Amino acid sequence: MTVRNPIAGTAVLLEAPNIDTDQIMPKQFCLRTDRVGYEDAVFHEWRKDRGSILNDPRARASPLLVAGPNFGCGSSREHAVWGLLDFGFRAVVAPRFGDIFRANAGAAGLVTATVEDDAFAALVALLRENPGTRLALDVVAQQLAIGASAPALRVRIPAFHRHLYLGGHTETGLALHHDAGIREHERRRPAWMPTTLDGAPAGAPRST
Amino acid sequence: MSASTLLDRIWDAHIVAGATPVVDGAEAGELPDLLYVDMHLIHESTSAQAFAALGREGAPPAPRRAELVLATADHTVATGIPLIAGASVPAASGGTTAQAALLERNAAAHGIAFRGRGSGRQGIVHVMAPESGLVLPGMTLACGDSHTSTLGAFGAFATGIGTTAVGQVLATQTMWMVRPKVLAAEFSGTPPPGVEAKDMVLALIGRIGGAGAQGHAIEFRGPAVRRLPMDARMTLCNMAPEAGARAGMVAPDDVTFAYLQGLEFAPTGALWDEALRYWQSLRSDPDAPFARRVGIDVAQLAPMVTWGTTPAMSAPIDGHVPLAAASAAPEETADALAYMGLQGGERIADLAVDVVFIGSCANARLSDLRSAAAIARKGKVAAGVRAIVVPGSERVAAAAEREGLRRVFEAAGFAWGAPGCSMCVAMNGDQVAAGERCAATSNRNFRGRQGPGARTHLVSPATAAATALVGRFADARTMA
What is the CATH number of domain B6-177+254-277? Predict the structure, then answer.
């Protein structure tokens, strides 16, 4: 796999705070059992509004999403990340992210970069004024370059996610390197820890 | 030895590998640890793609420890409640039964215990797992579901993960995780009758905000928590993600141990004694390094009702919907009010509801149903209100039926459904129609959560029952 860095191009701006994963990927699409083809599902309700920026032809060609604080809060559904990737985004820039969304994004190869609040405000103002501004997110340097001349913004991308993205690693692959450590841990596990093989017939719940 | 939190004690006992790899520019506390997962819970809506990842990209073809995985179907299963007006089975889905059937096949293929409908042990994953004794103090648990935090009520570290991580846990029984900081939420005082755990945690979320505990686990502490039974402690921990937290926790105590003793999977004999000695050591030191402390006097609390589109947007039952212009975030408040069909300034108690939903992993355990039934037995569901009760598990349903609670609900005009997530995540066809107002005991009031255009107000079971009888948001303190 070739690593794409920097991630450069135009950006879609969704500046509302607290965009939860129910908005990003409505529940009905979580009934699917495959992992590809979520490009039409992402932001499904929002895209019913014809004026939505997500319906602008430029949106599908934009590798960057700039979003309001606490983006991806709520449900752990990784389908939200898959939908953003299938739509064409490679990175999301926001002041803060929901913790599980951010972890899911890192595992699935969607870069999440945080910016300081005042830098975010400036970025929003710029994209409102010039929606076609080209940005370049450098995952190594943790910098977001804006247009041709403005100074680059400092961003933060979790170190582990940079390692995964730039090295083309998977989390499972990295964990498998620790097989000996896993075995050692399993030897030390207390005997009272349950397995689903133990247990008596079904009983009533304990009333509390 | 330096002072530790409850989280630290559990975390340190589960590190398989320290913070690796070493990455240029990494800050202290930024890198994850590889943690062993003592019990992995799976449900149908976030596991199919994880099973498909087995045997690919170097992953082993089978789960590493099938006996440390428990499966059930909850998100998509039918409750048997007739579809309500205006709602339908979600489109673009390929049907609602395919996922549960696929999970059952995957479980059978890999020797994973599956608790299906009719087994007597099926239910919402966060309800059925602890009632079987598979959630014990000091354990780590993971599930592809944010409300896995519920299980921290036992003094465990339990967290929601995505589907890629579900695949990793299947393959390796481990997960990569950055150690969260700990926010100590200290609850003092005695709550007025009719004020429940749901009200306590909604008050906390309202205080610190929907991202107030981001990067943290919340340890629920203090005398008002110690007095709560396990069911209510699970309600507190269930809602921790609504403040942005990765987990909720309560240190185990005699209430915990009494709940566990004799359960299906709880240890017995000498193993129980050994476990108990360890469990009694699981608490935060008096000088533990909490990143933050928040104190709430529950004697001052009233039943809470959310008015907006995040769980942090709430008001006391005797309060008002805020005015957008007077709020700290006027634009966001105005958007939320518009979605909710509110002007701002209304009395909460004047808002009429169309639907009442008592269920979900927040509030569908036996004590929740008892609390709601105690009010339901005093009247009839108001004309024009559709009220439903969906128990959290088959065990809860059976116990509630034995106690006569189902009869109480049905006599009052509530419909009674088969256990599952139902109208909380609204994936199984149980939906609220566009523009309808629903009082729900669930945990999320996001736009469209209960169906496109649905308006959700989060409340406690007592408030939900009182509201069903009155037809408007009603004060459980005067009806309890």
Answer: 3.30.499.10
